[in-house]
Amino acid sequence: MRRIWIIVFILFGSFIYLQASEGPEAFKANGCTKCHAIEVAGIEFAPGEPEEGEEAEEKEPVDLSKIGSEVSEEHILAFLKRQEVSHGNEKKHKKKFKGTDEEMQILAHWLASLK
């Protein structure tokens, strides 16, 4: 029985570690740096070119370094799905999340861990 618990603990720890290491990659791969930065993770704001049909605008990046101390993982997921408004400005997320459901889950879990 003890061996089973050790194996479960190792597998669970590995899963959490993989999610934590995949979070920054999901953040960058899904274009989150166009509007956000995460200073504590060394992820800088990179606005890039406006998408087709959008006008260029001066953007002030939102630093999400402590977002996990302000909202829950569930709130982040709902916000990315555009089902909830922001805790700060009462607006829904500007862009539709273009990643997979798995990437969204990884991203929300990682962001919620930033405290």
Draw up the topology in text.
Layout: H1 2-29, E1 36-37, E2 62-63, H2 73-80, H3 101-113
Parallel strand pairs: 1-2
Q: What would your notes on this structure say?
A:
With about 120 residues, the chain is mainly alpha-helical. It has a domain at about 1-30 and about 65-115. The protein has 3 helices and 2 strands. It has helices spanning about 1-30, 75-80, 100-115; strands at about 35, 60-65. Strands 1-2 form a two-stranded parallel ribbon. Helix 1 crosses helix 3 and helix 2 crosses helix 3 (about 100-115). The protein is elongated, with a radius of gyration of 16 Å. The model is unreliable at about 15-20 (pLDDT under 50).
Biggest sheet, in brief? Answer: 2 strands, parallel
By secondary-structure content and strand pairing, the structural class works out as mainly alpha
Strand-residue proportion: under 5%
Whole-number mean pLDDT: 85
With strands numbered from the N-terminus, the spatial order across the biggest sheet is: 1-2
The best one-word shape is elongated
The ordered H/E elements are HEEHH
Count of helical segments? 3
Helix content: 40-55%
The total count of strands amounts to: 2
Report, as a whole number of angstroms, the end-to-end distance.
36 Å
Low-confidence stretches: 14-18
**What Rg is obtained from the alpha carbons, in whole angstroms?**
16 Å
Please summarize what this structure is:
With 115 residues, the chain is mainly alpha-helical. It has helices at 2-29, 73-80, 101-113, and strands spanning 36-37, 62-63. The longest helix is centred in the first third of the chain and has 28 residues, at 2-29.
